[in-house]
Write a structure and sequence with these properties.
The protein is of the alpha+beta class. The chain has one helix at about 55-65; strands at about 5-10, 40-45, 50.
Length: about 70
């Protein structure tokens, strides 16, 4: 996945999608992330994923996507 930008949570996520209820960007130890979603991540292919604060910070550091203003 290649992140393009962050959007506010829940944004346009479908209410029935997993991303509307949990962080779907990463799965530590192949387990669902226990942290609540914080932002929506839009990838370059147009897909949307939810991300907890740890994932948002990791994406910003690894991929150079600017942090949301309230985390900067």
């Amino acid at each position: 996945m290649s992140a393009e930008r962050f959007e506010p949570f829940p944004g346009e996520l479908h209410p029935a999608s997993a991303s509307a209820h949990r962080c779907t960007w990463h799965t530590p130890g192949n387990q669902p992330c226990p942290q609540p979603p914080r932002n929506v991540v839009r990838t370059k292919d147009g897909r949307r994923w939810s991300a907890c604060e740890a994932a948002v910070r990791e994406i910003a550091a690894k991929e150079g996507v600017p942090l949301p203003a309230d985390l900067a």
